[in-house]
Amino acid sequence: PKTCGFISSKTMTSTWICGFCVYEFDEIEGHKLVEQIPKSLESNFEDIKCHAFPESTVGSTVYQDDVTYSFRVRNEHSFQYATTYFKCRRDKRKSRGCIQRSLVLLSRFPFFSLFRKLLLEQIGPAFFQHGSSALEAAVQAISQWPDLNKVTSGNKISLPLFGSVLKFHAPERIQHENEIDDVSL
Q1: Which residues touch 116 (CB under 8 Å, ≥6 apart)?
Q2: CB count, 10 Å around CB of 19?
Q3: Cβ(123)–Cβ(163) under 8 Å?
Q4: pLDDT in tens, 125-138
């Protein structure tokens, strides 16, 4: 696997994630990119913008106003896989009656189960409570995870984040870019 090669305040790379982007629904402009972590993150932001908000929150398995889902976007000659955590908060000051935001995690790999779990249980709630500093802390922690180039396929590896540790089963093989493999935790 290649790295996404992002640069933050310190030079660091990760084979796990490329970074995060945050989209908001603006009542005048519509969907707009409001933040990207790290700042040097490169992606097809226009394509992501089109997918950053769910068609509906009906039938959400989490909370009525929180939804997670995954999709992929073409980025130059390959794909990036995106996992989104959408949150709708009531706000009577808004003409629509709510604030809608989506936190999007970008990766070169379709580890959707892992990324949904991270977004739902740790990164998403931390971001919506503490803001960008939570994303920067997540990027820093994930950059310390074992390099996927050096992980033996089929092994269970530990992934520490925010004081807890997830166990992840390394896939038997890295998927071809057109294959979707929802690797289990």
Answers
A1: 68, 70, 83
A2: 25
A3: no
A4: 999 999 999 999 99
Parallel, antiparallel or unpaired: strands 78-90 and 164-169? unpaired
Q: For residues 46 and 78, what is the distance between their CA atoms, to the nearest angstrom?
A: 16
Tokens of residue 102, six digits: 């989506």
**Cβ proximity of 170 and 181 under 8 Å:** no
67-106 pLDDT per residue, tens = 889 999 987 778 899 999 998 887 788 777 778 899 999 9
Say if CB 172 and CB 153 are below 8 A apart.
yes
Alpha carbon distance 67, 61 (integer Å): 8
Query: Rg of the Cα trace of the chain?
Result: 16
Q: How far is CA 178 from CA 7, 72, 108, 110, 156, in A?
A: 27, 10, 12, 10, 25
85: its two tokens: 């955590």
- The whole-model pTM stands at 0.80
- Say yes or no to pLDDT of 24 above 80: yes
Which whole number is the average pLDDT over 43-72? 74
Residues 148, 152, 158: CA angle, nearest 5 degrees: 65
Q: How many CB atoms lie within 10 A of CB 14?
A: 21
Cβ atoms of 47 and 32 within 8 Å: the answer is no
